[in-house]
């Protein structure tokens, strides 16, 4: 850099130093501690830039201004040193006001009473008790803030019993992991990407915050129900479950990470115009649904938001917060009060079946999920949600309760076999509605099933369940249907 350019740059930096100290004096609050921190580098910079011949570049007015602003910055520093050291004038004034207020309280008492020692003693005692109460209240606040840290769980407390109930799970794990970016929201909490620092594998973690102590027992039961479903599942079209980590104020559920996002995100760009792609997705959805139903599990909240795609485009069911374990190994896993048909209305209205809306008998194995599956396939074909022509949920629920199916796609959107497939999903009577296993034998699905290679299972133990889908007339299929009915 030549000398002229260097001199010009030095002059600009000198004027910048002047503006900096002027900003501290003119625009910053004197009592703010930030002003103290900012004044130190401002003075150092000004001292460095005005050293030597640089100060000669200032005209008399700028030089006078520099002296005044540096003096102001020094006064600011000295005032803060006084506050940090001895008691400031402001603190002394506050103390005087406190004493004057105390004296005023005594003056408000009748003078005749002041002459009575017993009355004076009683007044002083009340003042002391009031101060003690303030100290006790402050102590209670400190204890309430610290009680969530490092305290041993007490089984006499319902909240602690609920946390211990979750911690007793066989899948309660301890590993080193790091939270990543936000992915989305689930039934009870938010989902983030995460890295397993021990293995280097990417995974998804659902964070469930336990904020309201009154709701913790209820939330813990719901989490335990979802874990009870996830622990027994092993299928390529169902998201894999790794474990749970329980803390006093939050719970983490670790699952398989699906980088392809949800089917809902895919459909935001419009309908799937290639029918063969829709058929492939429908096949995978049916494979996963048949596995769930034969495992004695009804999802009950099938919708595009709860269907994910991994990096290979493989469909994965997720979010079993509304799922119910109906039966397993021939034994009902619910209490006596729940042995009646499950009539709770759980799910999203536009994907609900008529029997769920009306609280009727759910019929044969997983019939409520088959209706919802038809709604999802309908949305893939048309690009619109079912009942999109209605403007509110009450109208939707009324039409569904009347047994009306959603508007089917036209011949220009779906083949005749595909429309027949949807009609079998939307049969009003749940007893006559086709099961997932029966739909796998439908000609529309068989046409694509012979063209694709079925994916491998995530573990050797579950390989048979994915490769060999039971025939609707097989003994295993009949036994699974009996368990649901």
From TrEMBL:
<dbReference type="Pfam" id="PF00069">
    <property type="entry name" value="Pkinase"/>
</dbReference>
<keyword id="KW-0547">Nucleotide-binding</keyword>
<keyword id="KW-0418">Kinase</keyword>
<protein>
    <recommendedName>
        <fullName>mitogen-activated protein kinase</fullName>
        <ecNumber>2.7.11.24</ecNumber>
    </recommendedName>
</protein>
<keyword id="KW-0067">ATP-binding</keyword>
<feature type="region of interest" description="Disordered">
    <location>
        <begin position="454"/>
        <end position="485"/>
    </location>
</feature>
<feature type="binding site">
    <location>
        <position position="206"/>
    </location>
    <ligand>
        <name>ATP</name>
    </ligand>
</feature>
<dbReference type="InterPro" id="IPR017441">
    <property type="entry name" value="Protein_kinase_ATP_BS"/>
</dbReference>
<feature type="compositionally biased region" description="Polar residues">
    <location>
        <begin position="458"/>
        <end position="485"/>
    </location>
</feature>
<dbReference type="InterPro" id="IPR008271">
    <property type="entry name" value="Ser/Thr_kinase_AS"/>
</dbReference>
<dbReference type="InterPro" id="IPR050538">
    <property type="entry name" value="MAP_kinase_kinase_kinase"/>
</dbReference>
<feature type="domain" description="Protein kinase">
    <location>
        <begin position="177"/>
        <end position="445"/>
    </location>
</feature>
<keyword id="KW-0808">Transferase</keyword>
<dbReference type="InterPro" id="IPR011009">
    <property type="entry name" value="Kinase-like_dom_sf"/>
</dbReference>
<keyword id="KW-0723">Serine/threonine-protein kinase</keyword>
<comment type="similarity">
    <text>Belongs to the protein kinase superfamily. STE Ser/Thr protein kinase family. MAP kinase kinase kinase subfamily.</text>
</comment>
<dbReference type="InterPro" id="IPR000719">
    <property type="entry name" value="Prot_kinase_dom"/>
</dbReference>
């Amino acid at each position: 850099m030549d000398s002229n350019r260097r001199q010009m740059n030095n002059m600009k930096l000198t004027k910048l130093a002047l503006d900096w100290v002027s900003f501290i004096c003119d625009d910053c609050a004197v009592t703010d501690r930030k002003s103290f921190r900012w004044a130190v580098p401002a003075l150092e910079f000004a001292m460095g830039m005005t050293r030597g011949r640089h100060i000669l570049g200032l005209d008399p007015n700028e030089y006078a201004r520099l002296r005044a602003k540096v003096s102001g910055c020094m006064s600011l520093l000295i005032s803060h040193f006084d506050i940090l050291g001895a008691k400031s004038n402001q603190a002394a004034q506050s103390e005087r006001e406190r004493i004057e207020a105390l004296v005023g309280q005594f003056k408000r008492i009748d003078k005749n009473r002041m002459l009575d020692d017993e009355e004076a003693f009683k007044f002083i005692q009340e003042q002391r008790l009031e101060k003690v109460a303030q100290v006790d209240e402050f102590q209670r606040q400190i204890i309430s803030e610290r009680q969530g840290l490092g305290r041993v769980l007490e089984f006499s407390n319902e909240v602690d019993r609920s946390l211990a109930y979750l911690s007793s799970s066989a899948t309660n794990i301890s590993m080193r992991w790091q939270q990543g970016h936000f992915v989305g929201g689930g039934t009870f909490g938010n989902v983030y990407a995460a890295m397993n620092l021990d293995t280097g594998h990417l995974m998804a973690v659902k964070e469930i915050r336990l904020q309201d102590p009154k709701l913790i027992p209820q939330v813990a039961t719901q989490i335990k129900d979802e874990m009870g479903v996830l622990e027994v599942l092993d299928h390529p079209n169902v998201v894999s479950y790794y474990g749970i980590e329980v803390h006093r104020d939050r719970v983490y559920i670790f699952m398989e990470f699906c980088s392809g996002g949800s089917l809902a995100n895919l459909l935001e760009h419009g309908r799937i115009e290639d029918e063969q792609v829709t058929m492939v997705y429908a096949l995978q959805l049916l494979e996963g649904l048949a596995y769930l139903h034969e495992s004695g599990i009804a999802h009950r909240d099938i919708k595009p938001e709860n269907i994910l795609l991994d990096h290979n485009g493989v469909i994965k069911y997720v979010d079993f917060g509304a799922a119910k374990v109906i039966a397993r190994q021939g034994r009902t896993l619910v209490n006596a009060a729940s042995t009646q048909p499950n009539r709770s209305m759980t799910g999203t209205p536009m994907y609900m079946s008529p029997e769920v809306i009306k609280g009727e008998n759910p019929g044969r194995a997983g019939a409520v999920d088959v209706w919802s599956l038809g709604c999802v396939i309908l949305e893939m074909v048309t690009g619109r949600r079912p009942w999109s022509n209605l403007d509110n949920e009450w109208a939707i629920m009324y039409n569904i309760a009347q047994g009306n199916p959603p508007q089917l796609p036209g011949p220009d959107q779906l083949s005749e076999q595909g429309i027949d497939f949807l009609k079998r999903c939307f049969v009003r009577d749940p007893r006559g509605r086709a099961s997932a296993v029966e739909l796998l034998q439908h000609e529309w699905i068989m046409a694509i099933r012979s063209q694709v290679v079925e994916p491998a299972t995530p573990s050797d133990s579950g390989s048979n369940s994915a490769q060999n889908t039971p025939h609707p007339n097989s003994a295993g299929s009949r036994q699974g249907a009996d368990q649901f009915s």
